[in-house]
Amino acid sequence: xxxxxxxxxxxxxxxxxxxxxLRNKSHIVAAIEAARQQRVSVLVLPELCISxxxxxxxxxxRGLQETSLEMLHDIAxxxxxxxxxxxxxxxxxxxxxNVAALLVDxxxxxxxxxxxxxxxxxxxxxxxxxxxxxxxxxxTDVDGKSHPIGDLLFDVGSVKIGFEICEDAWVGSRxxxxxxxxxxxxxxxxxxxxxxxxxxxxxxxxxMEGSRAFYVTYCYTNLVGNEAGRTxxxxxxxxxxxxxxxxxxxxxxxxxxxxxxxxxxVDATRMARSQSGSFEPDVDGDETDIVRIPFQFPRIELxxxxxxxxxWESGPAVKEEEFTRAVSLGLFDYVRKSRSSGVVISLSxxxxxxxxxxxxxxxxxxxxxxxxxxxxxxxxWTSKSAQPSSLADATHAMITTVYQRTRNSGPIxxxxxxxxxxxxxxxxxxxxxxxxxxxYVSMVSGAIGRPLEWKTDDIALQNIQARVRSPGVWMLAxxxxxxxxxTSNRSEAAVGYATMDxxxxxxxxxxxxxxxxxxxxxxxxxxxxxxxGIGPFPALRAINVQQPTAELRPxxxxxxxxxxxxxxxxxxxxxxxxxRDKKTPLEIFEHLRIxxxxxxxxxxxxxxxxxxRLWCRxxxxxxRYAPSFHLDDENLDPRSWCRFPILSGGYEYEIEQLERASxxxx
Length: 666
Hints:
This protein is α/β, with parallel strands linked by helices. Helix 1 (about 20-35) packs parallel to helix 2 (about 60-75), helix 8 runs parallel beside helix 11 (about 410-425) and helix 20 runs antiparallel to helix 22 (about 650-665).
């Protein structure tokens, strides 16, 4: 007779909010109850899920730490007959630690502290937490009771459970190796791992490799949604057994609680480990780091499992799909968690504002597609007025678009704005702000004693038009209790091609983390194909046939964005090399001569010089941009990713080297 020890494990994905104690606890308790109903015995919930991951400097508050423990005790009472991991901050020996607490049958049985803190990119964990050293374990007093803490392995009913907490699995010396040598059967990974393009595949590899190399069942979970403002979590949940994925959860869910479960055979991984010639067990005889807890696992049957992922996950447009779903989910959560009644967008008839408007409508469409209209309305509707009865009514009530014309606006953009607004179903308004522009021009002209002319006052005359468009949309946002969305993209942020207090106005800048070249490609894809389950938006043709333009100079100037700057493809290439890869102007010149061989060396050098001078001159603008979503490692947000001095030497020495090299090409 073949012996099997079958256990049902689950990864619980949660949509949490920093310091939202009761709501966070309700999500945790709901996940535990759902797991119990599914006969799950071991449930892992995300990192710091009790307090929220993004509490920032509030982690230093003694009140936050005490409330986390209060919630932990409440949650423990809900764990009868089940083993649950929850995350929280814990004060010990004068330091604060990021820990996973293991709760078994209504008891707190111990705390495992994170060993490797995330301190790069958008993460600042070393600012608040201390890393736990390898091989160290101790006891801590919590409310008069002594509990083990540190580098621990839990023997729960003769099944050994260990932890890798988020970053622990991303390093070369993974804790899982030592845990496997000590006999771990199941490794739990509670994470708060931010979304970035392509990151799912990296996680997938280390989950599968962890289960194969360590001969364990590996259970990984993550947060989902927009937890604290800038960071979006995709809700990745995966369970691997014997080097193979046995369960994968849906990403970008709008549900606050979602479980991904699988039945695994612990004896199978034990047998594989014993048969491996490369496995070397830890036989030093010291078992003081093992916490033993009596527990009776229920008898369950083995059910064949099949990993079913959404078709778009392996399709040809994964980045387009991820961008659409991540930003839409981020917007949905930002609106509801900021208690806004909707969004307001200054819809210019150009690519950027059209993208923001479309993503705003998709936040509702995706949510309704997944949860149904009634449930979405219950979660996001804050107005005291009568509730809408359909998705179309809700869209019209919650999304306001405004086209603001001046004498330099043309019929093409005006009509394009109307078509996009009609396609998404927004409440579309039109303002004529030219009179306000002329009033400012006349006022300043009179004060300085000369007329303002395009030949001598180009930038000032452009900027006043963009700035005059700001007060009206702000007023609408105030009147409607709505969130004003800025429409600047990352390429424009890099070179400061934006008017402060004009097109940068807003409480949130949803597309400031994405480059213009991709955004234009995405709009083409949205016009012809669109996301799975939603489909295309043919009305975007009115946007896609245009050359991007600020439309601030008189029509006979034939103004285009690329004419003012450089081709977006070149701009984005320079930005990546300069900011992401930290190349000098001369090094970038050598790179671009290969990638853009059809362009003269002199022209390439001019574009590189223009980029660096605009980049250095406009750091103050990037410091003032509205919060943006983090989408990849090319973000320029100085408050979460890319720091640069406001005042600098402007690369003048390096620019001189480049100009000498380019002149030698004559």
